[in-house]
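It is worth pausing here to work through a concrete case rather than discussing structure prediction in the abstract. The textbook approach is simple: state the sequence, then state the predicted structure, then interpret. We follow exactly that order.
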Amino acid sequence: MTQAQQAATAATSSTAAKTISKEQGTGWIICRVCGYIEDAKYKDQPCPACGFPPTVWMEYKPRRLSPKREKMLNLHLHPICVHFPIVATTGSFFVPIIALLIPSIAATLFHVVALVTMILPALVILGGISGYIGSKLRFKTATAKYPKQKIYLTIIYFIISCIQSYMAIAHGVNAENAWIMIILGIIGSIFAAKLGKMGSYLFAGRFSPYTAG
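Step two, the predicted structure:
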């Protein structure tokens, strides 16, 4: 029996789990195998995320939120905003590598990297502020262990982005300093990846199916 089958057997045979009633047609349900949340009107259908039969569904009661907080959370500002600095940081080391490998287009690519890294600190600030606001909306705090660690990592990430930006403004990006930009970009990407992983913990829990892949 595979691990997924064992999880399904344990979930469907659990007496502690409160299963969805036949009469219920409103509200929410959650899959006991993968944690997917669905409208209760689909309780007779298999889980669309993991494909297990309807027996895996159980009743789910989401936390009550004020309409204003719920509306703000539904905008998903932080998940949207963090894409911009991540793409910029990745490009700050990936594009110079391409420029070094293809000298015929190097000048154009170096100019692109310089422009991107000039605005990179602003993008990091945008991601950090949206993360702070998201933490306050979702958890009503930004001073617990993980949110506080994310703030510290964001500060380091911001400092790295400022160094990249200063180098681009003061010296430009060229073949002579491209490897410095590449190394800084790789370091910045590591911090961005760490922040993303911690964000997934905050979103779904450290050992949930979402973070376990």
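Step three, interpretation. Confidence is low (pLDDT under 50) at residues 1-25. The two ends are 20 Å apart (CA to CA).
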